[in-house]
Amino acid sequence: MAKVVSPFNPANAVTASRFLTLPPFVWAVDHGYHQWATLFILICGLLDKVDGFVAKIFDCRSAFGEVFDAITDGLCYGFALSVVAAYGWAPVAPVVLIILMGLANAWMRLVYGRRAGRTVNYKSYAMERIVAYTGYLVGFATAGYEVAFYYWAFVPLQGVIMLHDAKRMLLDAVPARGEAAR
Amino acid sequence: MNIISDAALHWFVTTLTAGLAGTWVVYDTFNLYRTRNADRSDPIVRDKHFGYVMGIIIGVVGILGCLRAHGVM
Description:
The complex is a heterodimer.
Chain A: H1 10-17, H2 22-30, H3 34-57, H4 63-86, H5 92-116, H6 125-143, H7 147-170
Helix pairs in contact in A: 1-3, 1-4, 2-3, 2-4, 3-6, 4-5, 4-6, 5-7, 6-7
Chain B: H1 6-34, H2 43-69
């Protein structure tokens, strides 16, 4: 019988704590404190790594936790990107494209979950890598580090990954329970 | 209100970016090599290969950005 894991566990608490970095991030951007903004988004990114370790240590991994982690990634990075674009620290056009593709990805994940008929996180090796890049994008903007280059290089990469994942999520057969975790 | 000097931040971001991007290029190249004979009719194997290739490209983009930031390119 599969182990039942409460959604109120240490790993999800660490994931949820990432939202606490957003108010001080906005405060730093609003006051023009580039280094503080970089520090807060760095903490947000580090907590994303810590929750995985905590889940292993406390043996509280769950499908809900994986989906919650993915949603938190999208909300934190999407919000932070919107803030840096609104304050003119990042170019608006690529940020709009990135957020639109992120929303399309969230919708496809929802469709994939419905097709699977259970709470399931769509696992994509390419998407894992581009999400790490997304975290960096905010840091590049706050640090004023080759901002235009990194933002415009990101858009086609995310586009290619979206097309690849769209086929898998919307058209290909959904793997049986446990198969996708290989 | 700075925590460190602007030059230190510049080098900190360079170290973090180039370090991770370089590691990623090596790691995903190794992963791609390790799974080169895996059954490509398996969709998960195909997804892994695609992910490794994208990881290598993202790593190269990261390194190119660092070179640009230091006026090498």
